[in-house]
Every structure is written in structure tokens, then in C-alpha cells.
TrEMBL record:
This is Redox protein. Pfam families: OsmC. It comes from Flavobacterium arsenatis. InterPro entries: KH_dom-like_a/b, OsmC/Ohr_fam, OsmC/Ohrsf. The lineage of its organism: Bacteria, Pseudomonadati, Bacteroidota, Flavobacteriia, Flavobacteriales.
């Protein structure tokens, strides 16, 4: 069994600092909830974790499958429930691939492999949210 660990320290008011093997993340809430806007929001970090997980898959698969692109971006947005505890009920993941001669079939396969097979964070999201995926092929 593989176990991950994060150590989180309260910095006062609504601010926290989380340390993991890759570095330190500061979290805070906005002023409306007593914070000072001095860090990332925990729920938004979940969306960033989803983008990072699938992004790492995509980068690895592009190299393995020898798919040529100029770059790519991933935009993730989530809709929260109205009642507490608020959580994401719908999440949209938009993959944006940039290049002059994009191989759309290979890029579709790369995204499908990440979404359906490799990305553990994507699978976690599917346990509580509807996940919608869209691929955009854009000329550089």
C-alpha cells in the first residue's frame, strides 16, 4: 500500500501552510470569510490537482506516443452545491491543444487514456461529481 502524507500548520486567522514532499502550499480564505487572500483556496486546489494529475498523464503519453504539439493548457471549473457541506457536483475539464498540424485522433486517445485509465484524481472526482470533458484543437 502506498500512503501519501501532508503536514498542515495553522498560521493564524484563516491561513494554513501545507508541506508535502514536493514543496509548501499556503492556503487562506478571502476577506468575506475572515481571511486575508494570502493563499490558495482549498476547493480550488482540488481543481488544480485534477488538472495537474491529468496534465502529467498527458505530457507522459504525448512523449510515449510521439505526438507533436506546440503546447497545451487545461481549464477546469466546478459547480458547487448550494447547501453545506458545499462540494463540486459538476466539473468541466477543457483540454486545449495548440499546434500547426495536430493529430486529433492521437490526441483524443491520449486524453481518453488519462481520463479513463490513469488519472486517479479524475476517478476520485467521479465518485462525487459529474465530470464533463472537452478537447479543443487550436492553431498556433
Amino acid at each position: 500500500m502506498n500512503t501519501h502524507q501532508v503536514h498542515t500548520k495553522w498560521l493564524g486567522e484563516m491561513a494554513f501552510e501545507a508541506t508535502n514532499p514536493g514543496g509548501i502550499i499556503k492556503m487562506d480564505s478571502d476577506a468575506e470569510f475572515g481571511g486575508n487572500n494570502n493563499g490558495l483556496r482549498p476547493k480550488s486546489m482540488m481543481l488544480a490537482s485534477l488538472a495537474g494529475c491529468t496534465g502529467i498523464d498527458i505530457a507522459s503519453l504525448l512523449k510515449k506516443m510521439k505526438v507533436e504539439i506546440d503546447t497545451f493548457t487545461i481549464d477546469v471549473e466546478g459547480d458547487l452545491t448550494e447547501e453545506h457541506p458545499k462540494f463540486y457536483h459538476t466539473v468541466r475539464v477543457n483540454y486545449n491543444f495548440f499546434g500547426t498540424d495536430l493529430d486529433e485522433a492521437k490526441l483524443q486517445k491520449v486524453v481518453s487514456l488519462s481520463v479513463d485509465k490513469y488519472c486517479g484524481v479524475m476517478e476520485m472526482f467521479r465518485q462525487f461529481a459529474k465530470v464533463e470533458v472537452k478537447i479543443n484543437y487550436l492553431k498556433s
